[in-house]
Design brief:
- The structure is a single chain.
- It contains 14 helices and eleven strands.
- The longest helix is centred in the middle third of the chain and has 18 residues.
- With 358 residues, it is α/β, with parallel strands linked by helices.
- The chain has two domains: 166 residues, Rossmann fold (3-Layer(aba) Sandwich), CATH 3.40.50.1970; 188 residues, Dehydroquinate synthase-like, alpha domain.
- The radius of gyration is 20 Å and the shape is globular.
- The structure holds nicotinamide-adenine-dinucleotide (NAD).
- Nicotinamide-adenine-dinucleotide binds next to helix 2, helix 5, helix 6, strand 8 and helix 7.
């Protein structure tokens, strides 16, 4: 069992049965315990939890509809109404059992109800384990804009047990891989070199790799918990990634990890154009993304809407678009102002890759 005691949270990586989970929930024997799941984690992960931990026998189960289109305040309102009907108090415990959508929303629900309940994250997707469950960002989307409403609040504990990944569809493993690659690109070249050597999705279901990618995020989050400076590096790939994800949300939705992979490709292009990475580095990044993720095609209308959405990105100010770019593999720089025309060129490049492959 690996235990990371960060300032805000305790993270345990290993078998849930031998972790301190049982002890933590026993402290709530006189309170209510609420487990939040989506349809898939209800079917694939919940039974193990309920049958392995007798203290959960009376837990209330809250089933949220899955998918980014349901990561909205209206769903949270229904949950808060249910919490009120059941007289839940701030001393009760919420357990978020699911991927990044469940930990983002469940954390948001717990953080706001009666000014803050205790909560625990048990991430069940690779993306959730290496990224979403860590760092205390909780929130929901608004009018298609990603994470427009949210709060910073850390769960008391995070339990990461890779055995939950046995039922995760292959495509979701690659979505987690995108965020792992990003962690390597922005601050750990050795991690990047090791990640790109992995030959199959099985190789990613590896505690050591998960631990190393979590370490990258935790170091940045601990140095800058509320994203005033270095934490922004984690947004590499996300300015374009989030805008693509939002744009396609109401039609052919692109999962978050896939959108981030496309964003990494386009933002590596910008880093190259700004002479921050070499042509070899750019082509290596592009090759890794092309090998692992499907490309997309964008019409002129798509491109203008994606750029409009970027202007609403939380990192921007004074009407300009600011990016995190790479400065060599393993290092990122923040607050780089990019002209709309240059963003258009990066999207055009992404489009060319899509056309070349179709
Ligand atoms: N808070 C943060 O710092 C942060 C960081 C990165 C991403 N995010 C957010 O995370 C979300 C994406 O997370 P995600 O990719 O985990 O999406 P997700 O929660 O939708 O999970 C992906 C899919 O896998 C299913 N699933 C999860 N665990 C499973 C299991 N063990 N077995 C079978 N199916 C399982 C889910 O039901 C879902 O269909 C986005 O909303 C993104 O904005 C947040």
């Amino acid at each position: 069992m690996k235990v990371i005691q960060s300032t805000a949270t305790e993270i345990q990586i290993g078998d849930l049965l031998t972790s301190s989970f049982s002890k933590v929930i026993s402290d709530y024997s006189k309170e209510n315990i609420i487990i939040i799941v989506d349809e898939n984690t209800h079917d694939c992960c919940l039974e193990f939890l309920l049958t392995s931990f007798p203290d959960l026998i009376n837990a209330e189960i809250i089933l949220l509809p899955g998918g980014e289109e349901n990561k909205v305040i209206e769903v949270c309102l229904q949950v808060w109404e249910t919490f009120t009907e059941y007289n839940f108090s701030r001393k009760d415990l919420v357990i978020n059992l699911g991927g990044g959508i469940i930990t983002d929303m469940g954390g948001f629900i717990a953080a706001l109800y009666k000014r803050g309940m205790n909560f625990i994250n048990i991430p069940t997707s690779l993306l959730g384990m290496v990224d979403a469950c860590i760092g205390g960002k909780n929130g929901v989307d608004l009018n298609g804009f990603k994470n427009q409403l949210g709060v910073f609040k850390n769960p008391s504990h995070i339990f990461i047990d890779v055995s939950f990944l046995k039922t995760l569809p292959e495509r979701e493993i690659y979505n987690g891989y995108a965020e792992m690659l990003k962690h390597g690109l922005i601050s750990d070249k050795k991690l990047w070199d090791d990640l790109i050597k992995i030959k199959s999705d099985d190789g990613l279901l590896n505690e050591e790799m998960i631990f190393r990618t979590i370490r990258v995020k935790l170091d940045l989050v601990e140095a800058d918990p509320e994203e005033a400076n270095v934490r922004m590096k984690l947004n590499f790939g996300h300015t374009i990634g989030h805008a693509l994800e939002s744009h396609f949300l109401s039609s052919t939705a692109i999962p978050h990890g896939h959108a981030v992979a496309l964003g990494i490709c386009a933002e590596a292009f910008l880093s190259f154009k700004k002479k921050k990475i070499s042509s070899e580095e750019f082509h290596q990044i592009e090759e890794v993304i092309l090998r692992n993720f499907p490309m997309i095609q964008l019409t002129d209308e798509d491109v203008s809407d994606v750029i409009e959405r970027m202007k609403n990105d939380k990192k921007n100010h004074s009407g300009a678009i600011y990016f995190v770019l790479l400065e060599g593999i393993g290092n990122a720089i923040t607050n780089i102002k990019i002209k709309e025309k240059e963003v258009g060129e990066a999207l055009f490049h992404l489009n060319l890759l899509g056309k070349a492959l179709n």
